TrEMBL record:
Residues 202-266 are annotated as: Disordered. Residues 18-464 form the Major facilitator superfamily (MFS) profile domain. It is a multi-pass membrane protein. The keyword Cell inner membrane does not apply. GO terms for cellular component: plasma membrane. The chain crosses the membrane at residues 20-44, 56-80, 87-110, 178-197, 284-306, 318-336, 348-369, 376-396, 408-432, 441-462. It is found in: Membrane. Keywords: Membrane, Transmembrane, Transmembrane helix. GO terms for molecular function: monocarboxylic acid transmembrane transporter activity. Its main location: membrane. PROSITE patterns: MFS. This is Monocarboxylate transporter 14-like isoform X1. Pfam families: MFS_1.
Length: 502
């Protein structure tokens, strides 16, 4: 093969387009999520501009982060109905409009609508539709690498947008910074989201831009022994098709069926997200509870880390360095998860309880640390474990409950983490206000992390005992039996229908 043919195959073929979607998702996250996660840079400016307290401003940021996850049950039916690209573009427009309108608000209370609501919904539309599209392009091979690579936009965006936002704020002020970021986000988002094409093999889950997957699902694989039955059936159907009466009956039945399916299809997108068999499965229910408990404690150390270090006699500037180390460790952890995730000798689901337990031990040990070097080690461990929990949610959810159920399980898996992310800081603040001691905060945080580790293990055990789906594949079924290591898992045919003799 010539070099120009290899180049064309790499960048213009299906695999090249899939990786392009992954990279553009990363670039979109860098601005959209980076702007949201750099909210700390706005704190002092908002206090000076509106003369309000830090608690009120903190709620604005917390609600935004909560909607990033909690709005997934809303955005999932939308991209199933209209396609990933349209919903992602809508999210970009919402985020840009949010920043633009926020630059004109006369009172900070309006920001709960202009920023928290609009930006939170927009960020969710971008995040949920794009990460599902990446998962649709990489359903088996390189799935961990692709999803983790895309999710590094969160950590990379935080590291990049914090200094960028601070520099723009110092140069042009608060309101003009919102306007500049609105323009940057819109241009970057539109260019990147325009590359969000559905998988050419029809493995996408949408019905508008990605409608080809219905034809793919209709294909069946038969055993060699069934060939005679198929041939006989085809001959009989061929004879009937030659008669005019049968042709008229067939066309009328087909038209009426397609019309009925078209009417029911719109409802099915919303109803399919809320399935009864999902919400009656004990393993899934405990998985949701475990994620809420985990996310409650996930943010405990970070909200008071720098201030806690000042009580140990460590200067505030060094405390900021420790927080930055945690951010770099999370970025490195996301990349590491992507590189090693597809090559682990055990199911990735077990990484969740392991990471939670390590974080619990690290949080408890923080009470014994009194030096700057010790806090650096603490931050490294916390950052790496946070990366595992943050970037593998989609992959582990698919592994536990199957890709065929991802539309009804994933929105609530990420939503449970968002719920804990909103409530967690409130609980942390209430504990500190009531006790006035940081030690209590770390005891509670370590205890919740230990509890979440145990709940996650029980959830995996329940899911193995009572699986959500009977399909046995590399993505569903019993973890110890159905997850196959090696290349065989990518080429296993699935018999979806049995052809009977007519």
């Amino acid at each position: 093969m010539k070099w120009n043919d290899r180049f064309r195959l790499l960048f213009c073929g299906a695999q090249g387009k899939a990786w392009l979607v992954c990279v553009c998702t990363l670039l979109t996250y860098t601005l959209v999520m980076g702007t949201m996660l750099s909210f700390g840079a706005w704190f002092l400016r908002l206090e000076r501009e509106f003369g309000t307290n830090s608690t009120f401003i903190g709620w604005i940021g917390s609600v935004t982060y909560g909607l990033l996850c909690l709005a997934s049950p809303l955005s999932t039916p939308l991209f199933l109905r209209f396609g990933h690209r349209k919903v992602a573009l809508c999210g970009v427009v919402l985020c840009s409009a949010s920043l633009l309108t926020t630059s004109f608000v006369p009172h900070i209370a309006y920001m709960f609508v202009t920023y928290s609501l609009l930006y939170g919904l927009g960020a969710n539309f971008v995040f949920n539709s794009s990460i599902n599209l990446v998962g649709a392009h990489f359903q088996h091979k390189y799935r961990s690498l692709a999803c983790c690579l895309a999710s590094t936009g969160f950590a990379f965006g935080t590291l990049v947008m914090n200094p960028v936002t601070e520099a723009i704020l110092s140069a042009v002020g608060l309101r003009n910074t919102y306007r500049i970021l609105a323009a940057m986000l819109l241009v970057n988002g539109v260019l990147c989201c325009s590359t969000f094409v559905p998988p050419p093999d029809g493995n996408s889950d949408t019905t508008s831009d990605d409608s080809q997957h219905h034809n793919h699902e209709g294909r069946t694989l038969a055993k060699p022994s069934d060939t005679e039955h198929i041939t006989a059936t085809e001959k009989l159907m061929g004879q009937k098709n030659n008669t005019p009466e049968f042709e008229g009956q067939t066309s009328s039945v087909t038209n009426s069926t397609s019309t009925k399916e078209g009417k029911e299809n719109k409802k099915s997108h919303f109803q399919g997200v809320f399935r009864r068999n999902v919400w009656t499965n004990p393993g899934f229910l405990l998985w949701i509870l475990a994620n809420v408990v985990l996310s409650l404690s996930l943010l405990f150390p970070f909200f008071h880390l720098v201030k806690y270090m000042t009580t140990l006699g460590i200067p505030e500037k060094r405390g900021v360095i420790v927080a930055s180390v945690a951010g770099f460790a999370e970025l490195a952890g996301r990349v590491l998860c992507g590189v090693l995730g597809d090559n682990l000798p055990f199911p990735m689901a077990y990484l969740f309880p392991a990471a939670a337990l390590i974080m619990a031990v690290d949080t408890f040990s923080c009470l014994l640390i009194t030096t700057f070097t010790g806090m650096i080690i603490y931050a490294l461990v916390i950052g790496l474990c946070t990366a595992v929990i943050s970037c593998l949610v989609y992959v582990v959810n698919s592994e536990l409950f199957g890709l065929e159920n991802v539309d009804s399980t994933w929105p609530f898996s990420i939503g449970s983490q968002g719920l804990g992310g909103v409530i967690g800081p409130v609980i942390a603040g209430a504990i500190y206000d009531r006790t006035g001691a940081y030690s209590t905060l770390f005891y509670v945080g370590g205890g919740l992390l230990s509890l979440s580790s145990a709940l996650l293990l029980v959830a995996i055990w329940l899911r193995n005992a009572m699986p959500l789906t009977e399909v046995t594949s590399s993505d569903s079924g019993h973890l110890s039996e159905n997850i196959v290591i090696g290349d065989d898992r990518y080429n296993t045919p699935l018999i979806t229908e049995k052809v009977t003799t007519v």
